[in-house]
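Lab notebook, bench 4. Still working through the backlog of constructs that have no structural model yet. Next entry is a single chain of 115 residues. Request: give me the structure tokens for it.
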Amino acid sequence: MRRFNWWEHRWPEPTDRMRNPDVQARGVGVMEKCTFCIQRIRAAKDKAKDEGRKVRDGEFTTACAQSCPTGAIVFGNLLDNESGVSRLAHSGRTYRVFESLGTEPSVFYLRGKKP
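Model written out:
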């Protein structure tokens, strides 16, 4: 998702406390882009490091994937061949936008299954 930020982020009290303190509000006039919920990734990595292990598949997900009622959004580690998202990426049903331009996008789209 990309969008241009036209708004001032000033919230009246007490609603100023409802925002996520882990996500910085950018100033007006800044292009916004999805960060894949980096704050969730960092929290999961920190927890796994404290426990002396690697982050487990499915241990965390992005806000959009969590709130998607149909499960159409999947997030995970493409470098882990055992992860669910890696299996989907190698299923032969995937394509990436502008891949032919050499941009190496990290977002994969799945074609529908044939009945």
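Notes after review: Helices lie at 38-50, 63-67, 84-89. The mean pLDDT is 83. Flag for follow-up if needed.
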